[in-house]
Amino acid sequence: MDGKKHLTRRDFLKLTAVASTGAIAAACAPGAPTAAPAAKQAEPGAPTAAPAAKQPITVRLWVAWGNMNKLFQDEVWYKMPEYETVVGSNITIEYKGNTGDQPVQTAIAAGDPPEAASNISYAQLAIKDVFLDTQPLVDTSKYIKKDDYIPAIWDFCKFWTFKGLLGVPCFESYLDYGLNYNSKLVKDAGLDPDKPPTTFTEALEWHKALTKKDAAGNLKQFGLDPYDAMGGDPDGIQVATLVKWWDDKTGKFNFNDPKIVDYIAVTKQYYDIMGPDQIAGLRQAEGMGGWGGAYNAQAQAMIIEGYWHPGETTVQAPDVAKLNKASWTLVIDANKGRKVQEAGGHTLGIFKNSKYPKEAFKLGEFFNQDTPLNTLFKEVGWIVGKKSWMEKYVKPDAYPGLDFYFNKVNETTDWFQLRRCPLHGFLWNQWSEVREMVYRGKLTPEQGAAEMQKRAETEWKNQGLPT
Amino acid sequence: MAVATAKKWRLSKRETQNLITGLLFVSPWLLGFLLWTLYPLISSAYYSFTRYDLVRPPIWIGLDNFREIFTDDPRFWTVVYNTFYYVGISVPLGVVVAFLMASLLNTKLVLRSTFRAIFYIPSIVPAVCSAMVWLFIYNNQYGVINNLLRAAGQPIIPFLSSVEWAKPSLIVISLWAQGTAVVIFLAALQDVPRSLYEAATVDGANALHRFWHITIPMCSPIILYNLVMSLIGAFQTFLMPYLLTNGGPMASTEFYAMNLYRQAFEFFRMGKACALAWIMAIVVAILTAILFRTSGRWVFYGGGER
């Protein structure tokens, strides 16, 4: 008891506990905004405060596919003079590829969405009213004019319950359907590559000729998996049948239509020839499980794909791409002679609750300039249906098979827009199961169509979607 | 007596200080528990009675999610069947295999330590790597087994692409990764008193008798433990089927946890996903309780009491 204050072991432990708790509490506290608006950062009374527009701004751009990752890594956009003119050097892009619906919706829910996203489930998000209406910005834009775009591409930016435009065409947005085929495999099978089939029934003959098995019955090569790539998208139903499985005017489902039953019945025959287990197993081989992978591996001779197929195949499998030819997508017999096309793709959706939506719109304007469009076409194989650019720069023979998507577009008799239904993702999942139940003999085509109708209507009701 | 009890609950100044200090020390864990376990648990119970799509505010719909799951969901009963099939076969089989493997490793085997390591390795290999290995084994085109069949001119076995084969193939994979259970069993086996075996041998018991009447009863508490843990784990099976089959073919390998994941993160039906989670939690709790209730008949505790 010398009167001095000692720090006892107990006191020390108490202090440590308080300090560590405080540190944790501080760590849990919301952080300072990483990119506060320029005006708030300026010191009051600063002598020559830079104009707000010149303050550094970071625009977050999330894209579901990874095809552009390298271009963004190499920062090719900043080197283009148009970037300074249209966007401004104070704006940088924080890009995330391979970032789809899940992180986007989580970010929206957290109240901190990215400024823009592309190749996401537009309809599913539009019904939740998260997009900025870009119509007023388009109206005053120097760079984006409605008349410069193929009407079906422009209309893709509209949506049932959404007033105005839910973005701008961007990155890739053109024609989504065509029958692409490997001319060498076709010729080797004794077929004429200059006379491609136009209906599923005609293509079935090609499929038979192109499907090969070994002596033990193991599948080595096949003609067409009607549900691969865009054929597997539920929209494949409407381009084949001309029946909108979901009517975006009435909000009603039409899976029960007899034409859809016919479509299910004829596609089943393809699997009867291949064997459902065999084709599913072949898809598990490396390089053949992904979208269009079996075509690139020359295990599949025909594929239902969009305009991007010739360009992307050139990038991914150049030797196979050289053999590619394209023609009209297949329809059911009842629609023989109809030339069907669907349009849409990577709209740049801008989130209204993001920090810099107007700056994000500038990115949309920039990516519609000729130079970035040329880069995307050359490096990735993507096209935006912007007429002035296409006429000036895009050579239809740039990639084998691409000419079909240019030279024949005016012959289209029936147009559709891509993925209109808010339940598109859900129904894609259900459709994969139901069509498999049909081609595995568990359901008849009629039962399959009825099952889809039932599942669609039930989910619509249970999600509380508007009627 | 009442005074004594009341006094017991009155803390001295020193005791209060100690309590506060103790609470401060455990506060990091406590905060973590409250924020990341208790709050999500309670909120998931609330969300299970709502329609919630993550973006818009939740709407209270009472028991509608549960009604929909049991009466309207086209895949629910398929998923339940798949899960019970998988759990019903993989869990008991897994425990038996792990116990037999441990028994084998408990003998005077040459390179015993090496074998122990080999058996344990699958448990520490990341699941994604294991999935790739099994893809190579099961693959129709270049898989080990199917290449042999093809070389022999025989039809291949569509391990993961056939409705009939897919679930059994996944069960085989689950048996492969029993390292943790083997290690636990091994510890239990080494704890069985030698004197019991010696006494049984003197009484004329052969190896099978000793295994049945001594080894199994003495290890039965650990068997119960592994059974319960495997049961809980099997109900949550997700990664392997997700990586290998993504639920196919024809939803034949879509298990409960995968369906729950789809509802939450593919269809963004958080309310329904929470309802599914609670149904699973209740079912697992009931099955675990049944196991404990019936364990009195077959679990032998050396001390005579549980």
Describe the structure concisely for a colleague.
By secondary structure, chain A is α/β, with parallel strands linked by helices. Chain A is built from 22 helices and eleven strands.
Structure, explained:
The complex is a heterodimer of chains A (467) and B (306). Helix content of chain A is 41%, strand content 13%. By secondary structure, chain A is α/β, with parallel strands linked by helices. Chain A folds into two domains: 164 residues, Periplasmic binding protein-like II (D-Maltodextrin-Binding Protein, domain 2, 3-Layer(aba) Sandwich), CATH 3.40.190; 210 residues, Periplasmic binding protein-like II (D-Maltodextrin-Binding Protein, domain 2, 3-Layer(aba) Sandwich), CATH 3.40.190. In chain A, the strands form two sheets. In chain A, strands 1, 2, 3, 4, 10 and 11 form a six-stranded mixed beta sheet that branches. In chain A, strands 6-7-8-5-9 form a five-stranded mixed beta sheet. In chain A, helix 12 packs across helix 22. The longest helix of chain A is centred in the first third of the chain and has 20 residues. In chain B, helix 4 runs parallel beside helix 8, helix 4 packs across helix 9 and helix 5 crosses helix 9. Chain B is mainly α and 306 residues long. Chain B has a two-stranded antiparallel sheet with strand order 1-2. The radius of gyration of chain B is 25 Å and the shape is globular. Chain B is 74% helix and 1% strand. The interface between A and B is large, with 51 and 45 residues.
Q: Which helices and strands, and how do they pair?
A:
The complex is a heterodimer of chains A (467) and B (306).
Chain A: H1 9-28, H2 38-41, E1 57-63, H3 69-73, H4 81-87, E2 91-96, H5 101-109, E3 116-118, H6 122-126, H7 135-139, H8 151-155, E4 168-175, E5 179-182, H9 183-188, H10 200-210, E6 212-213, E7 219-224, H11 235-241, H12 258-274, H13 276-283, H14 293-296, E8 300-304, H15 308-316, H16 318-321, E9 324-327, E10 340-350, H17 357-366, H18 370-379, H19 387-393, H20 402-407, E11 414-417, H21 424-439, H22 445-462
Parallel strand pairs in A: 1-2, 1-3, 7-8, 10-11
Antiparallel strand pairs in A: 3-10, 4-10, 5-8, 5-9, 6-7
Chain B: H1 2-9, H2 13-47, E1 50-51, E2 59-60, H3 64-72, H4 76-105, H5 112-124, H6 127-138, H7 144-151, H8 163-176, H9 179-190, H10 194-202, H11 207-235, H12 239-244, H13 256-266, H14 270-298
Antiparallel strand pairs in B: 1-2
